[in-house]
Structure formats: C-alpha cells, structure tokens
Design brief:
Length: 482
C-alpha cells in the first residue's frame, strides 16, 4: 500500500503566514462568515455565477461546457467536475467560497484549481486534455446525511438496451392467439430469459471482469453498517416496503447494492387498455432495459453478451436488440490510494465528524471518461444533494473543499499513482492492517473474506454459506443459505 501522508504536511507559503492548522482554522471561520452570502448567490444561473467570478479566474466556454481555472502557488492541480444538474450551482458556489476564503487568509491558493461544468464527450476531452490535466479529480455529486458528507470512491457504469418485437403488420383479434404470433408473448419470454425465478442473471459470461472489493474494504463496509442503517430503513418506508428482496439484512443489502450489477426492466409498451385495445393480439411490443455496471465491466461488451444470449434463444428475426446511446464505464479509486486516505482525513477535520464512505456511488456518471482523458488520476465523489441545501451543509461542503486543497500537494509527484478503470493482470494484495488518515492503525475484525463476488450475482438461494447472517433459517417464505 502506498505510504500514507497527513493533510497537515507543510506547504510552501508566504513568510509570516500562520502554520497550516491555524491557517485552516481561520479559513473555516471565513467560510462560516460568508456562507449565507454564497448560498444566496448559488440560486443564480450558471452564466451569472461564472461571469461574476473574482479576479484571477480564467473562464472559457466550450460549447455547452464551461471551464474555469485559478493559478495557484504549487505545481499540483485539482479538477472539480460539476455535472449539468441543478445541485451543481450550489456545489460550484461552495467551491468559490472555499477558494475566496483561502485568498482572504493566505493571499493565494496552494494548488491550481480547475472546474468543469456541463456535458462531456470524448472529442471535447481530447481537444482540451492539456487544459484539464490534474493531479486528482473531485466529481461533485453526492449528499449530506445529518451533517456528514457521503463520499463515494467511484461511480457505477450504465448500459441501456431496447428490445423491439414485431410479429405482424397489424394487431389481430385475440381469438387468433393460438394460431398467430403475439408480440407480447415473445417479448415476455425474451425478458424472462435474462433472470431466473431466484433473480440469478442467466446471461452467459455476465460475471466476466467483475472486480471484488478488497477484503479490507468489504470488512470496513460491514463495520460501517450502523451508519447506513437509518438510510436503508427510510428507503423502505419511502417505497412502502416491509423488507428487501429475500429478507436481506442491512449487511447484505450494502454488499449487494455496491458490488452487484443490476439487470432491470424500466419500461414496457404493448397493446392498449382503452376500448380500442380490448381483445386484441398485439402485433408489436417493446421494452427498455438498464444495467448498472460495477468495475470492471465494459458496457459494450455487456451489450454483446446480452445480444448473443437472446439470439441463442432463437426468438427469430422479429426480435430487435438495440443499444441506446449514453453508455458509461464504471470507475473507482481504491480506499488504499494515498489521495483517498488523505481526503477522508481532511473531510473528517473539516466537517467535525467522519464522513460516510461508499465503495462506489449507486448512480452512474461520466467519471471514467474524464479519468481516461487525464491519465487515470485518483478521483473521489461527494457534494451537496438535490434541492436547496441548508446553511450548515453548504458551509460544511465549502470547508471540506478548502481542506482538500491541502491534500493535493502531497500526492506522489515523480511517480504519480494511476487507477485505470479496466482490468489489470494482477490485483494488489492488501494487508490486514489499515492505517487511518490520522496516522493511527486499527485491527480489522476477523470476518470472512467476501472477495468472491460470484457469490452475489445474485444466486442467493444457492449460496453455500451465510457470511453476514442474512435471513432467519427455515422461516416461512424465506430461503435458507445453508
């Protein structure tokens, strides 16, 4: 594992400036004083926010995407990406508040700070790779839970597929359903071929390239279950559920939602429920599928697997299998990365309590696209959630960003760490002791190694053991893991 460093390591600065810890205290105080003003300004549109940037910021517009840069005193640089979402106005304003506080207290920033707002594509990133070059990336999307930022170490990938079935030139009376082909039955059978009754994915080789969490991360996630349990309970209440599938307990819910790719039917279209559709044999039908992917799945390869699987079932030429645009690769930086370790320590000091840490965001975004263009530097995801944030969360976000500016200069320089979002020939072996960002160590609990991810895809009724004690045995309506 890379040697860990403290985010309070010395930084170059002007003579007479207070030591870094004292400087950060002053910066925090400045942010708290100005938080209300910046929060109010965040309600403005992007053009107004970027047109009114203080002196020193250079702003360029690349089509619908906006790039900003402030030259700092050090050689390191940090890129903050804001997806084109309403919450990004608040996240950008928090970044500006952090930068302004640094300038007020220290007169300069310790790193070159860059931001990018808006849609991304390979052409834009290729044309502006030199401008975007950075030692580390922050993807500004996330949420705060009771004052604690939820920090994710990456983002899931995404594949969307449409199935279209056409069996006849027009709908026929349903009385002919035993002698004429119904598009509805063909579509239902095609969808049913993707999963078994126990939700096991039936697509051949779907598990190829899956990367398990290192044992230390799996154990750390288990240890953090009480921090996530309130949110898991609220989710059940929000959706009117009494429990998760197979009555999974919180530990297995966490492992599954972070580690297991999803196969979902998001929309179905066939026939009509109005009078004109009564007693009809549908001539056409379609469905939309989505797959949220985990490292190191490739959406193009997964599409080929889906297509070949369905074609092998011989549904005939009436079934079309179409990959929809917008596919995204999953992306992740391991917990052991020096930047991640130092960033978590900085977030803890800035927010006054440890952040919540997820191995990967449950949602997808173009993080892998951005990382590849920049040479795969370390990346982390956090930010203010949807809706107007409260002053306390806004101030905490600005403070975390301000503290993170001290982390980047400590990143390895001559031999920087890189974290490609594709399979490598051999995975790093991690020790059973983990140094925390404060320079202390803790013993990981003696728990089963859950690194064999094939146990979670998700053939739950046939699992050979129950490492996390998911469901009571022999309970009516339940399966047994023994």
């Amino acid at each position: 594992m890379s040697e860990l460093f403290s985010s309070h390591s010395p930084l170059p600065g002007q003579p007479g400036l207070p030591a870094l810890p004292d400087r950060l205290i002053m910066i925090d105080a400045e942010i708290n004083r100005q938080a209300s003003r910046y929060l109010k300004e965040a309600r403005q549109q992007l053009d107004r926010l970027t047109d009114d940037l203080p002196d020193g910021w250079q702003v360029q517009k690349w089509g619908k995407t906006v790039f900003g840069q402030y030259q700092g005193s050090g050689s390191a640089s940090l890129l903050v990406y804001f997806p084109a979402l309403p919450a990004s106005r608040y996240n950008l304003s928090a970044l500006l508040a952090a930068a302004a506080a640094w300038q007020t207290v220290a007169g300069e920033l310790p790193v070159t700070l860059k931001f990018l707002w808006g849609p991304l594509d390979k052409t834009l990133l290729s044309e502006h790779a030199a401008d975007l070059a950075a030692s580390a990336i922050i993807y500004a999307e996330g949420e705060y839970r009771q004052g604690r930022p939820l920090i994710s170490l990456g983002m899931k990938g995404l594949l969307e597929v449409e199935l279209r079935v056409t069996t006849m030139s027009k709908a026929a009376p349903s009385v002919f359903s035993e002698i004429m082909p119904a598009a509805s039955w063909t579509l239902v059978q095609a969808i049913a071929a993707l999963k078994s009754d126990s939700q096991e994915v039936q697509i051949e080789d779907f598990e190829d390239n899956l990367a398990p969490l290192p044992a230390e991360e799996s154990r750390a996630l288990l240890k953090a279950t009480p921090d996530f349990s309130p949110e898991l309970a609220r989710r059940l209440e929000d959706y009117g559920l009494s429990g998760y599938v197979f009555n999974l307990n919180d530990q297995l819910v966490l492992q599954t939602q972070f580690m297991v790719p999803t196969v979902n039917v998001s929309a179905l279209e066939c026939g009509s429920f109005d009078r004109a559709g009564r007693l009809k044999l549908p001539a056409s039908a379609r469905a939309r599928l989505d797959f949220h992917l985990v490292p190191y799945q490739d959406p193009d390869q997964v599409f080929e697997l889906v297509k070949n699987h369905l074609l092998s079932k011989d549904f005939g030429p009436q079934l079309e299998i179409i990959q929809l645009p917008g596919a995204l690769r999953p992306s992740r930086t391991p917990l052991s990365a020096a930047f991640i370790q130092a960033a978590l320590g900085a977030a803890k000091r800035a927010a006054g309590q440890p952040p919540l840490v997820g191995p990967i965001s449950l949602f997808s975004g173009p993080l892998a696209l951005l990382k590849v263009a920049l040479g795969s530097p370390p990346a982390i995801c956090f930010g203010l959630g949807p809706g107007r944030p409260g002053r306390a969360d806004f101030s905490a976000q600005a403070r975390v960003l301000a503290h993170l500016l001290t982390v980047v200069p400590g990143l390895p320089g001559d031999f920087p760490e890189t974290f490609p979002d594709w399979p490598v020939s051999s995975l790093q072996n991690f020790p059973d002791q983990q140094a925390d960002p404060e320079g202390l160590t803790f013993e990981l609990p003696d728990l089963p190694d859950f690194s064999d991810i094939s146990q979670l895809i998700p053939d739950f009724p046939e699992m050979e053991n129950d490492p996390f004690g998911s469901a009571p045995k022999n309970k009516p309506g339940n399966f047994s893991l023994s």
